[in-house]
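Bench log. Compound arrived from synthesis this morning; before running ITC I wanted a structural hypothesis for how adenosine-5'-triphosphate sits in the protein. Inputs:
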Amino acid sequence: MTAQPAVETGAIGSDTPAIEAVDLVKTFGEFTAVDGVSFSVPQGSVLGLLGPNGAGKTTIVRMMTTLSEPTSGTARIAGFDIRDDPEEVRRHMGLTGQAATVDEILTGRENLRMIGGLYGIRRRELAERSDRLLEQFSLTDAGNKQVKSYSGGMRRRLDLAVSLLAAPPVLFLDEPTTGLDPRSRNELWDVLRELVDGGTTLLLTTQYLEEADQLADDIVVIDRGTIIAHGTPLQLKQQAGAASVVVTVSADSDLEPARELLSRYGQEVFVDAASRTVTTPASGLSDLTRIAGWFDESQIGVDDLGLARPSLDDVFLSLTGHRAQADTADNSGADTSGAAHPTASTKGESA
Ligand SMILES: Nc1ncnc2c1ncn2[C@@H]1O[C@H](COP(=O)(O)OP(=O)(O)OP(=O)(O)O)[C@@H](O)[C@H]1O
Ligand SMILES: [Mg+2]
């Protein structure tokens, strides 16, 4: 990521937000997909736009990247307004969409050369940059094979490599790791962290709570087109409730004594026989050591004792009353056209 073709970041002040959404609204007929969304992303940081299927994530990204016109409101990318300066906006951003856009017939390397040519990157520079990107995304060996022979994960990586060719200061990634296996996902996270270390600003949409937790400085949680929470991963977790101490006892017969012990000290206790655990609210490490002490002095067999903080999944549940899409499911097959929110009004379906 060295020389930046036709892109200058010097034009904007260091405290101009890299990305700004100002009361964005998008309606499709009667249906309001995005209903007044505002946020701002400082340069060099990562915003995670988190929400379930049909929340409006892609619609927001499409408006911000000039692919679709807002019904009302606007956005600014690197200080340029999407309505007044769409050309400048496009010059300052890269986009990896939700669906792969690379050409099936071409090889990975040919795809990079073709798009790089469109950006006007000179041949030699382009060859070097393509090689570097292929290596960075572990595609060196596959670089000379046709994309139609690639796995889903390889396609995603090539897609991302293509959107990085022009080294844009602002990068939009729509569900970059959907459909990837855990190893590919981790590799991609590493690449993204490197980019951010190099000064790139990232906006990524995700249904994976863990992904937002891993990568984002700030998280905007969206549900049915509106922002339902905004904060750092830690703030959101704190919002979902306090930490708890989880004690895994050695045998089923230890469960009842463990419950009694905690109750005796006035603790609220939740027993889960299936996992052989008792859980009790705690405010921090001092509670943990105190509770560990009680068990130490008892005859109760303990396999494990630890402090648990709420996951972002718990956050989602406490904010919306329903869980986000399960992390375990592969949602790559879910297309957005038919993915209206299950509990959202159906009036949009006919629009
Ligand atoms: N062109 C369109 N015409 C009509 N409705 C649309 C259109 N595009 C999106 N929608 C609807 O707007 C809502 C938001 O869709 P969007 O694709 O932005 O959700 P998403 O958060 O990206 O979901 P996913 O996680 O499935 O990608 C959905 O109910 C969708 O059906
Ligand atoms: Mg989407």
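What the model suggests: The longest strand covers residues 31-41. The mean pLDDT is 84.
ITC booked for Thursday regardless.
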